[in-house]
Protein 1
Amino acid sequence: MSNERIVFEPADLAGCATWQLISPEVFVLCLGAFIAVFVYWSRRPKLNEPPLVPYKYPLIGHTLEYLRDSEGLLKRCHEQYGDMFSLYLFREVYTIASNDLAYEMFRSTNFSFKEGLERMFPLGDIIGSKAYPGNAAVLLKDRFYKHVDDCYSRIYRELQHNIDQLIGDCEEPKLINNFDEISMTIIARAMANLFVGEELCKDDEIVKVFATFATTLIRVRKLSSIAYLIHPRLQTEYIKLVFKYGDNSPQKHKDLLTKKLKPIFEKRYQDMQQFGNEWKRPDDLIQLLLEYSIDMFGKIHYDCIACRMLTLIWASIHTTSANLLNTLNDYAGRSEYWNDLRKEQEVITDGLDFDLTMDRMEKLDSFVKESNRLMGHILMLPHCATCPSFTFSNGYQVPKGRLVLMNNLTYMSNSSLHGDNPETFSGFRHVSKSPFARVGRDSMAFGLGKHACPGRWLASRNIKMAMSILIRKYEISTLDGKRPKYPIKRGISVLGPLPLTFKKRK
Ligand SMILES: *[C@@H]1O[C@H](CO)[C@@H](O)[C@H](O)[C@H]1NC(C)=O
Ligand SMILES: *[C@@H]1O[C@H](CO)[C@@H](O)[C@H](O)[C@H]1NC(C)=O
Ligand SMILES: *[C@@H]1O[C@H](CO)[C@@H](O)[C@H](O)[C@H]1NC(C)=O
């Protein structure tokens, strides 16, 4: 995957450049959108909506300022309007909620996180999973994570093997510029092991699907940002089109998964029927998907299984590997933590039961959590209102379909949640408080309430296992010993690889 650079968000979208690109077709589209919005607005029932922050230019609203300086915009609005206000961005009204109002949304069944995500990125449309009942998250929560505990030693070995292979011995110091790619591959292979089992995860084509599917989606989204500026819906259509005819269509991935899984599934299905209770049930995700499909459809439904798998790949690999990259950047650029973290690792010996030792790594856990907490995203966790109108406890109402996002700046800088100097990195501030994967008001990395990410224990452990291996094996540092800040674009922190030196530890 040599030229698969991981770009997390559009990097160079200067607002004004977009205007030069606007053609007559686009103008007509804008006009159409404007009329549609107008009709829509004028027909809606009158609600006591949160204040819409005034803006100068119709159609543009706060978009340009948001693209230029999302942090400044959010701070200014929060000072003026408090914990709830609305912004007009990308031809849509978004409501921004802070503190307790955000928690109300997380806890309410009148909001859907799944729909919120789908609105930001139409994954279900792209891969065609909307046709099937249920969803991948529920499947995992209800069935998979009960069994996953037995898999950690397998994942650990897989991580170790790939770190050896991709980074090497480093007897001589080795400069690595693309840890983003390495992180993606390491995590993709570990997840592939868990998801498709030990046999198939050695298959290069399968690993490639795991490692590239998420990256491709991100790249296409980046290319489509101009469409997004015109209207989010246009972006959706554009992305769907690209995937339908492009090289990297989800259909191709689905076909490949089906081709590879078919012999295994057929064999397992036969064995299950033939040996009944005497059959030793393999502990991997494909077994679960097989059983789920039989329960649901009475047969092996390959398309549905492939859809679920692609959703899980998208959801798990990209975020986990981004977090690993971010944590390692923090580790490499903050030498004051090396001694403590290494010392903690001395209790861990390879081959020891990892489950037991994992929970003893309190400092590492805290470091990963702090690193995530200060990752720098500004607006998070889009939730979509699903009831005719939702009334917050402060009396403000939002209509059905409104996207409400959490204001991360107020969350991050709240000292009653995180302790003193909440805006400064303090690696061990969470020691002997709640672990990274436990959600709570002071720990929102995986959402909260009923929408909390079901894969959080798995993700958190994967990151810690990989970090543990890296810390014990190498001295890792940035070139100048510093940890530069990532740029923020469109409210998202643009994580990137820092040039890192790896050297074998004595
Ligand atoms: C900090 O968080 C708490 C709990 O959510 C909230 O009640 C409080 O208003 C927040 N403080 C500030 C200054 O935002
Ligand atoms: C914002 O929130 C998300 C999850 O809710 C977290 O991962 C991130 O690090 C938070 N903080 C900042 C400043 O980005
Ligand atoms: C949630 O939705 C239900 C059904 O539409 C509605 O009766 C209820 O008032 C809503 N809750 C809030 C807090 O708006």
Protein 2
Amino acid sequence: MRYIKKLEDIPQLTETKRAALQPVADVYAFRVSDYYLDLIDWQDPADPIRQLVIPREDELKDWGRLDASNEAANTVMRGVQHKYPDTALLLCNEVCGAYCRYCFRKRLFMNDNDEASKDLTTGFEYIRTHPEITNVLLTGGDPLLLSTRRLTEIIDTLRAIEHVQIIRIGTKMTAFNPFRVLDDPALVAMFEKYSTPRKRIYIMNHFDHPRELTDEAVASVDRLIRAGVIMTNQCPMIAGINDDPQVLSDMFRQLSWIGCPPYYVFQGRPTAGNDPYKVPIVRGWEVFREALRHGSGLARRARFVMSHETGKIEILAVDDERIYLRYQRAKDANLRGRFLVYRRDDDAYWLDDLEPIAGTDTPRFAAEGLATVADGPSDRRGRAGVIALTIGSGWRSGCWPANRSISCRFSSRDRN
Ligand code: SF4
């Protein structure tokens, strides 16, 4: 597999185009595998695969922050993030098979960034001394770009820590370079060894578009399933790539057929450089809801969520006036399971843009972080939305008219 890092090595781009895009690539790194480059339909300037990896001039528009969900606040040491008590992230690599133009961690690929670490010695020690950590996510960058020997060392060390039950690996290599799996029997054998009946390894794949599900990609997914890995998919909603109900629905259905069901669709974080890829919350929800109309239940398992600095927030429903959300996970225990009601705003891209409905104890957020949080009684946690919807009488008097009818999907269980 050849990785292309220079625009001048893409003959399909005219010289003028390359000159126009070079200033963008100088700011936000460019890289792509030759396999993935071959998937582009160069006749179509709006080709979604092209949008995904080829820079665009409008990335330089001033929008967002490099660390849009303030991961710095969760970084306990180089390469380790610890936001929720049971989950630790190990940022073990700072390279990916290609660089998604809309990446929310593109800061990792910049020269002066040292957040990721290949030396995880202190990270392992941190996890060892925190018995509440039962769930470790290897991420970056792409962990599957590490050598099989190095990845084996990491998995072996984590498996030796008794309280670590789930190991997850976030990767887009099955899309960017499925041969990483297909051509390396040692990698597959490693998964066979360490994904055990009592403690499975999960691979969080990252397919964004059904055209990425080539025969090779599907074969790599199959190889990993046969090795005993649990496969699932998560992706952001990206303008020009998958903000289309038909595209998303096609992908969901195909993913369910191949044993890699959709798990999360993320509202794009307001990350610097991502202006051309942004989708407003309301439109994203409409696309997502429409995509869920088709396919079996397994194709409709995804949840539409926002990874906000305060927690993971599910976008439950939108009606003519309001947006309904709920914390799936929260950094602050007071927010866990909290049901939120904001004024509908079709131009809002992030939680911080939304206005709470007066009379609810929905918190208001500001760009610089949490501005106010009203404490709610613990018995509301995880049940507020269902109570409000089923009895229609208001979670908080005045916030939910009895005759209000909205369409939404969520349950009272706090699934992570
Ligand atoms: S694979 Fe993930 S980490 Fe890598 S560039 Fe794409 S979005 Fe970013």
Protein 3
Amino acid sequence: MLAGRNARCVAFMVLPFIECLLRYLYSPPRTALDASGLPPQKSNKSPQIPSLLAQLWETCKVSQNVEAIDPDLVGRATELAAAGAFLASVCTGTAGTLVVSGDPGVGKTALVQRACASLHSPAWVLAGACLPLASMTVPFLALRSAFRRAPQFDGVAYPTLRTAGEASHDVPGRIDDWLDELCLLRPVVLVIDDLQWADQSTLDVLMYLIAGPPERRLGIVATLRSGEVGEGHPLQRWLADIRRMPRIHWMALGPLDRLDTGAQVSHLLGAPPHQTLLQEIFTHTAGNAYLNRLLVSGIPPEARHLPPKLPLDLRAAVLA
Ligand SMILES: Nc1ncnc2c1ncn2[C@@H]1O[C@H](COP(=O)(O)OP(=O)(O)OP(=O)(O)O)[C@@H](O)[C@H]1O
Ligand SMILES: [Mg+2]
């Protein structure tokens, strides 16, 4: 059993290099950007890799748990390049943290998902989201959902996050040790969505990880609704504290411009929008990707104007 465990660990360490080498040898020359101006999407499966190795690799690798990538993401070339550079530096051995902030619906989650899906080196992306629970606090909520997708194999034990009956200061150390081991095998990107709703225990663990060794291949990416962290919000202090820590990167995500709004609407309608319709949408949404999506739903592609009466819930969301 020990031999099997060792063999799998060795496979985890060696196969990425063999895969990279074979991808290099077998892949056609790449262009830096595709027609949309975005880096070409990385395919999980490469038909050029000899099938025996590909099968072996498939049995050992744990797929990135990036969910529901929006195939029609528009614009964001600069932000994707910046996020890609951050992730690349993580993969080459510099731990760091990226906080993506912006208005609700502006596209923070979509951007982070796309950036993680575009990673060029094999990495584990562990993604979890905080929730706006009102009547209770669930310790480590986002971390629990992120770690649920973690690779499970002998030798690198999944950390238990039980809190009852144990000193809570054990938990950050245990998570840190576990991530340390994972990072030796492959880069790890821990994505925490909607940090504004994080429970204190999640924030404490994140702080502990951020303060960890600089040279490990651990990236933390958090999204944050900036407008919701007002005076007295518990996160304010946490953000002020991490500002003083090294290797923290900030990205303030703005709305889409008119051109990119047009591209998003075009994708959603299945045809280029009439200019008057686009102008009305942009006037109402100011380029907020979520509001664009709400406004366009149910509109025929040939429409020249928004319907005179929007449903009430939509009016509340878009015209507020
Ligand atoms: N650049 C984009 N191009 C096309 N669609 C986009 C883009 N950015 C976001 N969207 C779409 O807009 C919607 C809102 O995006 P997203 O959930 O990423 O926003 P968010 O900033 O994370 O919002 P929240 O603060 O509510 O979490 C989603 O349906 C997403 O697919
Ligand atoms: Mg989001």
Protein 4
Amino acid sequence: MTLTEIANKNGTDKGTEHYEAHGYTEVYDKYIPSEGNYTLLEIGVWHGDSMRMWKQYNPNMNLHAIDIDPRVTNHISPDEFNIHIGDQTDEKFLEDVVKLTGPLDFVIDDGSHVGEHIVKSFEILWKHIKPGGYYFIEDLHAGQADAMNTIKKIKDFSKNESPSDYPFLMAKVIGPSTLSLYRKLMIIKKEDESNSRNNQQ
Ligand SMILES: C[S@@+](CC[C@H](N)C(=O)[O-])C[C@H]1O[C@@H](n2cnc3c(N)ncnc32)[C@H](O)[C@@H]1O
């Protein structure tokens, strides 16, 4: 089954059938492998639909998620899934979570969708992303996400040098990270600079 089929089966709006049917799985399936032991941290559990999706997609991944609302554990068992209850803007909480997860290959922010929260989580977690890893931010269309301002802050923080002042037109930037946009999804890759140095030799 493709990731989108698994998403649709589990009822998450990351797929193409349920709620707003964002179709993000069409992107994730190109970046996140269906095999291998890597670490994925998702911000936002809600009813656990995406957690079940990830587990079916690749049972071998080191899967963790956070949510501010302890009631999420009424929908998904903390015995079966690594669920951490806390606020995505709480630095100490996130640092404690990363002590448990280890360095991160993928982070997906599907939490509050508030611009300030998105930026804060990014500023805390970006240093824990492995070279070659990805940080995804969903639902930039949400009013509270304040998309243009959020993109600018993240672009500045991850030290991109943009060839354009219009991030929506930008697919590639020069520097230690690459920022691109797919509809309402922001994708920030932490470039592996040792690789690019080797390639230049
Ligand atoms: C869109 S839902 C997550 C959906 C889930 N990822 C899926 O695809 O099935 C957003 C979740 O973010 C949580 N949330 C909201 N504000 C938060 C915050 N400040 N820190 C952590 N989680 C938050 C909410 O409690 C809610 O469960």
